Amino acid sequence: MKAIILAGGYGTRLAEETSARPKPMVEIGGKPMLWHIMTTYAGHGVNDFLIACGYKGEVIKEYFHNYKVRNTDWLVDLRDGVVQTVGSQVCDWRVGLIDTGLDTMTGGRIKRLEAWLDDSTFLVTYGDGIADIDITALVAFHRMHGRLATVTAVRPPARFGGLTLEGDAVREFSEKPQTGEGWINGGFFVFEREVLRFLGGDDVVLERAPLERLAAEGQLMAYRHTGFWHPMDTLRDKQYLESLWASGKAAWKLKEGKHDADGLLPKDQSIHYGTYRIQRQLAHDLAEADGSAGRRLRASA
Q: What is the pLDDT of residue 287?
């Protein structure tokens, strides 16, 4: 199964860092954001990537072209020029670095990669958001509901403390209450190949007509991720993520032995892991989706 990472935007809100490199190449703990996202997928057996390049895509291509050199120790014998590898931290990833245009929108970038997709199901996310998301459970959720598309719903990082008031009296104070902020698009999509027919040319924005239409047709489901999620939109975001990494509190950092090497569960395998929670969410979401579809049909009759 392939994972597409959208990495072609200008990143204007992080101009302090993106004048010389694309936003997914901004580093957290000495590694590009792109690397952090890819390790999240790889921790669940997804190691086949398509990077949708655009703005300063050559920086991304150069990084992966020299990845082995950057992550390998060498012993060089200057007498005869023989180079011996003495240590390596190279990943077993297969990475496609595809130019999808400088000004192409998110939907158009995915559409441009259609010829590179050889599976019926594929994954998509943004190159500027990180999470401790369980990719295995996400894919299991998608397979169980049987619709065309799944989006990961997350709570947005709250910027301000919350107050509960009774008149002028403060009855409750909560520092940045993230759970009161509603649900937003957190990326980490799972799509069936049929989703590609909802995408058109380079000017198609995935988050507008395609997802709106999928939702209206009852083909878009939400996987609720209640764990860590954070974008890297501003310098403040970068500094926050850096502080988490430096302090050892980066929730997305994979723990040794956390995931099975077998990767994603095959489609015909009975899924035991997380089944109760996933089935409860599915029962609620499918009933709600079917009810909404029924209401639309009655309204149009």
A: 59
